[in-house]
Fold this protein.
Amino acid sequence: MFATIVLCSEGFPKTVVLGLFTRLGPAACRLDQPDLSIDTQQNFLTRQNLGFAQQKTAERMIFARKLFVTILACVTLSVLMVGGCANPTPVTPATEMKFAGKFPIRIVCTTGMVADLVSQVGGKQVEVTALMGAGVDPHLYKASPGDARLLQSADMIVYSGLHLEGKMTDLFERLAQQKPTFAVTAGMEHQRLLSNEAGVHDPHVWFDVELWSTGASVVRDRLAEFDPEHADLYRERCSNYQQELAKLHAETKEALATIPPEQRVMVTAHDAFRYFGRAYEVDVRGIQGISTESEAGVKQVNDLVNFLIEQRVKAVFVETSVSDQNVKSLVEGCGAQGHLLKIGGELYSDAMGTAGTPEGTYAGMIRHNVSTIVSALK
């Protein structure tokens, strides 16, 4: 009889754990192929439940041998994914947990922007690790076995939210039952969030510097709850950093205002800059939607080509974490109709620059983007 059914989410390692028998030990475990349909899995499990007592010893031995080729990391991911599915012994809710370990607090973040925010508020009391480095697209990111180990060993997990991290969102919601796990966008006012035609919130909030600044307050409060001993330090750092961001917000507005309004048109690979456009009065257009999972259609590309020609736009922009193919198609389409369109430069959108460079910080990323846009469009 099965004690637990474990199904690894798609996108994790190819070996799929179908079931773990605790009653009969390792001989009662069966591994199947990752492309096995859910219906087939369920039929298999049903047959085992009904007829396991009659299974031959030789079959059980085969099952046992298959168990030992299971990749350990896949088991780790499985445990993370199904945490809370059973009926665990009552424990202290994660939101009420207090840090009782050795400093620094180990915090795993998803994107570089989130990691930078947590580092600014946490200071030397925290050790921050980002899962997604330079050039990584969070919309398409899939957790690796190494990520599973990091998440399991972390004292706290912080992610961006609004489904930026795609399929990892369900994992974070489960981990929130085990340890402090939260989104920096959780405290942002609903009326300040943008949505697409389907009512899905746009997750690219960091491009409105003033709005992103409110995420620092969320980090401050959660750190202060988890580590009350250093609450005053978190509050002080948060206040100082928010003052820096207020200056960056004003600096960004001033720089973009130097572009004549009729030339303040910005077209990029995907629709990541809507918050930027609203905050700094720029007409922004994306070839793909707010997620790079959506594909751009021929009509959408042709419509943008016509728009660029009509508006006499001089430049479009590629992104470091998204393919430049669609942007090049715009340049070629405009050229075919006699309009000279250039690629104005590379912008950081869903990922910051390489760690250790100016663009490897949130403020440095924003300043790079603003400088590139102004130089190309002014």
About this structure: Residues 231-256 form the longest helix (26 residues).
